[in-house]
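Ticket 4471: requesting a sanity check on a complex prediction with magnesium ion. Repro inputs:
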Amino acid sequence: MTPPLFAIIGHPNEGKSSVVSTLTENDSIAISSTPGETTRSNTYDAKAQGKTIISFVDTPGFQNPTRCLSWLKENELSGAAAAKEFINRFSADSQFHHDCELMTPLAQGAGVIFVADASRPLSKVDLQEMEILRLLGLPRAAIINSKSESQQNLEQWKDAFRKNFNAIRVFNAHNANFTERIGLLETLKTIEQDWSPALVAAIQAINEDWGERAQRSAEIISGLLEESLVFTQSKLIANESQSASSQKKLKESYREGLIKLEKRAWADMKNLYRHHKLSIDFDQQSILNEDLFSEKTWQAMGLTQSQLAIAASTIGAGIGLSVDAALSGLSFGVFTAAGALFGGGAALLKGQELSKMKVNHVPLGGLKLTIGPNRNEQFPFILLDRALLFHRVASNWAHAKQENTLEIDSNKKKGDSSNWSDKDRKLAARFFAAIKSQRQDKLTQLYPEFNQLITNVL
Ligand SMILES: Nc1nc2c(ncn2[C@@H]2O[C@H](COP(=O)(O)OP(=O)(O)OP(=O)(O)O)[C@@H](O)[C@H]2O)c(=O)[nH]1
Ligand SMILES: [Mg+2]
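Returned structure tokens:
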């Protein structure tokens, strides 16, 4: 089946390229506040399960709508053939370069998606552009892509759209999430009966592809937990005199190592959702802008102490265990190492060290310093909640969106896991315990169940 073809048409600077970027999950398409950014028609494919399912043509804005309309009327032309005639007549005239470019996909019989910023007043030129499209007679939908909140011109636009288009849909290219993208495709399904089966198949493929991405994300998150919970760093030193400075460095590299594992998992999820520009330097207020080991993170993510106690009771590990004296030479929390633990921060750990430093004598002389693995019961829930939140952001992020603002800030627990049932939290705690104990049999048994839980949450 040939993928359906739609041309995105409209006045300059109305958000045409933004619509294409979000619909095709392509953040490399040039979007600019300067009108006339797009000068040629370019085809971009929406892909699912490795196949092109719909093609969208990003076009330049109309250059001479008034003259285009009068020429079509003078020559009594209509239908797709009119677009061909228009190109034949004006292709050599540089003043009509943009008009000829936008007519190119229409001459091929593409469906039309007309994009307008309905927060501004409707003008005579807008009506002329709509009339050109009506004369060409191709199946067409209008998208209201309002750049500001203003609603005062909306009814006027809707009135004009009703007269000239087969369907109307509000679609904010800079905020639209997956559900809204599907909603728009559902609308396109209605504008031409003959195209409906191809669009039904496309929507099904996109939904399946989305489910596959959720599963893959769950694997990435499980993988992050598996690596982070057994992560250690070691260093050999000659004697005690080097111990203090070496421990400091080792603590730092241990902390950085864990942060790196988290960043890699986030990057994998970003790629999965086809984001190449989305930076993980979020807005200042965002909890995701906080370091994995910052006190704010530990306040907002993870479980409350009582939830943690219930979850951990399932594996027989009490909260507030004293440090195992036999293992520890020296011990300290990684928070302190980061210099980020102030006042109430100690209470977040409830007597639990984040990680211990072991100092062992090596038979042939010298000392071996080892830090990790992380034994704190809260830590995996923090990692998990941050990954789930990052996934929510990346999977809902419109590809056309330019800025990285994410306002999530509160002293309340904001992570997902604190809203789960005790049963689900216990399952997670058992999965974490299996990783820590390196019991392969338990891990194999729990992995599918835990993965399913995460896929459902995603
Ligand atoms: N806030 C907001 N701004 C938008 C939206 N869509 C587009 N813009 C802004 O509007 C300007 C034009 O967007 P483009 O997508 O480049 O518009 P275009 O119609 O392709 O423009 P030309 O190629 O010049 O015809 C850019 O500054 C965008 O950031 C939207 O949904 N919300
Ligand atoms: Mg453009």
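Notes from triage: The mean pLDDT is 85. Leaving this open until the requester confirms.
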